[in-house]
Amino acid sequence: MTRSGVKPFRPPSHLAVRPENRASSLRVSPRDESNKNKSYEQNSLNILLLEDEEAHIQLILRVFESRADVRLTVARTLREARTRLAADTPDLMIIDLLLPDGRGIDLLKETRRNGSLFPAVIMTSHGDEAVAVEAMKAGALDYFVKSVESFANMPRLADRAIREWDHIAERRAAEERLRESNRQLRESEERLRVADRAKSEFLTNMSHELRTPMTVFMTAVDLLLQVDEVPEHRQLLEMADTAAHRLLNLIDDILDVSQIDAGRLKIRQEPFDLSVCVQRAADMFTLQARRKNLKLAVEIAPDVPPIVTGDPDRLGQILVNLIGNAVKFTHKGEVTISVQADRQRLHFAVRDTGIGIPQEKMHLLFQTFTQVDSSLTRRFGGTGLGLAISKRLAELMRGSVKAESREGEGSTFVLTVPLLPGDRTVPADPKGTTVPIGGACHIRVLIAEDDPAIQRLVTMILSRRGYQVVTAESGHDAVAKWQNGDIDVILMDVQMPDMGGLEATGQIRALEEAEGRHTCIIAMTAHARKEDEQACISAGMDGFLAKPVRISAVVEAIESCFV
């Protein structure tokens, strides 16, 4: 402890040792350099004493004589201490405050600034609280005033200082390990974010690049199906159309997996007609079931609320996956879709009389890119994404999907989701509510599209139906042609050179506000995600068509502008 007002210490005569009778370095036990980094309890202690008064040096050497585990080295000046510190880092340094060439406490501060860490104790002939505070701030573990008692207790002081330093070192090492672990974790998270962004951007760009030529392909096939009556030709065109839709579904599935993995897929909450949602999913497979002579039935229990709250698109997507698999793997019999309410849950069961699933393969059902048998992939096609996506969508809806099956006896897949009753009224279904405009020849349609093939095809389709068509190859061109002519409808691509469709729409809406008019703008884009649709609507567009588009969908969208 620091004591103020103490007179300078002078050793008693019976402890005084003549300088010539005592060496300035005491080594009782040789230091094992190979074990230098081990605990001080297992090796000799390397103590560096920085002291210029010979009598004090001799006293300190004497009190350590009985310690066989101590090697004590003396430095009498700051310069000599720096030389010894450069050669070896001590296990403990005992530092006099005042030396011929400066203050010992300044040397301690210097070593700390240079990154050299070792336990240190400051000693002085005069007690001073200010010096004690400065010593602790400089990194000293202890501070004491020279006295017979303090010299006698120096071995215990050394042990305590080193033990305390060991605890500090362990704590610092643990903190450093934690900091390093956190740094590595942050780096890993950043690498994952970068990789996720790169994957998302890659898949988005690939989707756009695939959908653009598919629009040309599928629109051309669709147009040929309307004009070609030769049976052999129609059979080939229908095969091409089916294959194109399979490819489109695969693109959508891969994008969904990417969105779910990235945590970007959001589940909407809105009221919708449950029976309409279920029936639409079933209607998609009516023709396929009829061709296989299968009975396809929908059964909705009377106590199921007609209007519920949720995401009808994602619910429909799960049902389409389940019904599609049931029809695909059933050769004879029936596929039944039933809906029941149980307390606060809805149960959608899809039962079939198909080939069933071996019990040892059931665990593979909901794994990504996995089918229960590789032979089934070759025989029936598919990537194994549908069920994996369905399971993850159900979990996002706070629900679950389970399966029961016996090989050769059929399967039952049950989707369970929370029951959230909705309002009695829902927005009118836009499908089938448009009114044919009759006078198509008076409608001027601007096609803002940079792909020449899509321009020609859409122009051909609309011209055959009597529309007047104007084309633009960029956003700037679209705005200029809108300003120059009486445009009734714009089919606006989103990604175009110079200016994209979102910015072009914003400029048109700003100009319209000043003129007091409104032009119907419909997005027709290969950016087909829900967030892309929302971005288009937020930009001021009136409708959204994802490429590839059906001829009927384009016409219906145009006609809906005049309802």
Structure overview:
The protein has about 575 residues and is an alpha/beta fold. The strands form five sheets. The protein has a six-stranded mixed sheet with strand order 1-3-2-4-7-8. The radius of gyration is 42 Å and the shape is elongated. β5 and β6 (about 100-105) form a beta hairpin. Residues about 1-40, about 375-380 and about 430-440 have low confidence and may be disordered. It has helices at about 55-65, 80-85, 105-115, 130-140, 150, 155-225, 230-260, 275-285, 285-290, 310-330, 375-380, 385-395, 450-465, 475-485, 500-515, 530-540, 550-560, and strands spanning about 25, 45-50, 70-75, 90-95, 100, 100-105, 120-125, 140-145, 270-275, 295-300, 305-310, 335-340, 345-350, 400-405, 410-420, 445-450, 470, 490, 520-525, 545.
Shape by Cα distribution: elongated
- With strands numbered from the N-terminus, the spatial order across the biggest sheet is 1-3-2-4-7-8
Question: Could you give the count of β-strands?
Answer: 20
How would you classify the helix and strand content by structural class?
Answer: alpha/beta
| Annotation field: number of helices | 17
Question: What fraction, in percent, of the residue positions are helical?
Answer: 40-55%
Low-confidence stretches: 1-42, 374-381, 429-438
- CA distance, first residue to last residue: 93 Å
Tell me the major beta sheet. Answer: 6 strands, mixed
Overall average residue pLDDT: 80
Beta content: 15-25%
* CA gyration radius, whole angstroms: 42 Å
